[in-house]
Amino acid sequence: MSVGERLYSSKVPASYLGADQDFKLKMVMMSCLRVILQASPCKALWRRFQIPRSMLARPCSLYTCTYKTRNGALQPLWESVDLVPGGDRQSPINIRWRDSVYDPGLKPLTISYDPTTCLHVWNNGYSFLVEFEDSADKSVIKGGPLEHSYRLKQFHFHWGAVDAWGSEHTVDSKCYPAELHLVHWNAVKFENFEDAALEENGLAVIGVFLKLGKYHKELQKLVDILPSVKHKDMLVEFGSFNPSCLMPTCPDYWTYSGSLTTPPLSESVTWIIKKQPIEVDHDQLEQFRTLLFTSEGEKEKRMVDNFRPLQPLLNRTVRSSFPHDYVLNIQAKPKSSTSQVPP
C-alpha cells in the first residue's frame, strides 16, 4: 500500500470522534492536510489547523496525557497540532532499505525486563496498554543507539481492520498487520516519564512488526485477558509478564530520531525498529479487533485502524545495525542462490 493510500485509508479512531458526521469528516480532512502541508514548502501553514478537544477519564502513558502544560486536564489525544515542536522529525515513517545507512558503531541492544514490574492491562480508548512499575531500574534497555539506560513504562499495539495493514511504520512500503511498541524513558536525565516525553532523547521506543504465521504461545497469555478490557476505561491486573517473549530472535534493527505517534506528537523519541517480525496467527489478531473504542453503554465501535498516517522523512537518516550492501547488489544484478534477501 502506497503512502497516499495509507494517508487516505487510515481512520481517525472512534474514541475521539463524536457522533456528528461532519465533525468526523473535518477531523480526517485536517489529518490529511496536516501531512500534506508538513511535507510541502508551506510547512508552517499546518500549525494553523486546530483539532477540537474533549476529555479523558484517566491519565495515559500511550500519549503524554499528564504533560506539564496548561492543557494537562484536557483532551490528550489529538490535542492541537501547534503543540508539535517544529514538526521536522515526525513518526511513523516508511523505512527504505536502499536509503538506510549501515552504522558499524551501533552497539547491540541490551534488554533486561523484570516480570514482577508488570502491573495491569488497560483499554484507554485508543489501544490496550500493558503498564509497568517504573520507579527503579528494574526493567530497562541500554546500548544500541542509546547513551543511557531507559526504563520500561508500557507497551501497546497498533493494528488494522484486516490483515493487509495495521502497522504504523512500513518497510519499502510494505505494511504489516500490526506493530508492537515498547515505550521507555530516560531516567538518567529526567525525573519522570511525563517530563522525558517532551524532551529530546527523553524516550526510546522499540518497534516490533507482527506478521501472520504460527501461533504465538506467549502472546496468548495477553490475548486471553483482552475480554476483561473490552470497553474503554476497563482495567485489569496483569502481573508477572516478561515482554522479552515478544521480541524477535534476530538482533538487527533500524534506528532514527522521531516523535510520539499520538499527541502531543513530541519529537522526543529514539526509535529502534526491529528488522525481523514476530509471527502470530490470524485468530490472535482477531482478538485484538474484538476490543472497542467505546465505553459500556455507548454504541459499540470496533477498535481497529488505530495507527497514524506515514510522515515525511525530510532530512533525517535511518541507520541500520546490520550491513545490507547485498540488497543493492541483488537489485542491480542476480547473485548466487546463497544470497540473502530482505524478509
From TrEMBL:
<keyword id="KW-0862">Zinc</keyword>
<dbReference type="GO" id="GO:0004089">
    <property type="term" value="F:carbonate dehydratase activity"/>
</dbReference>
<feature type="domain" description="Alpha-carbonic anhydrase">
    <location>
        <begin position="63"/>
        <end position="322"/>
    </location>
</feature>
<dbReference type="InterPro" id="IPR036398">
    <property type="entry name" value="CA_dom_sf"/>
</dbReference>
<dbReference type="Pfam" id="PF00194">
    <property type="entry name" value="Carb_anhydrase"/>
</dbReference>
<dbReference type="InterPro" id="IPR018338">
    <property type="entry name" value="Carbonic_anhydrase_a-class_CS"/>
</dbReference>
<comment type="function">
    <text>Reversible hydration of carbon dioxide.</text>
</comment>
<comment type="similarity">
    <text>Belongs to the alpha-carbonic anhydrase family.</text>
</comment>
<dbReference type="InterPro" id="IPR023561">
    <property type="entry name" value="Carbonic_anhydrase_a-class"/>
</dbReference>
<dbReference type="GO" id="GO:0005739">
    <property type="term" value="C:mitochondrion"/>
</dbReference>
<keyword id="KW-0479">Metal-binding</keyword>
<dbReference type="InterPro" id="IPR001148">
    <property type="entry name" value="CA_dom"/>
</dbReference>
<protein>
    <recommendedName>
        <fullName>Carbonic anhydrase</fullName>
        <ecNumber>4.2.1.1</ecNumber>
    </recommendedName>
</protein>
<keyword id="KW-0456">Lyase</keyword>
<dbReference type="GO" id="GO:0008270">
    <property type="term" value="F:zinc ion binding"/>
</dbReference>
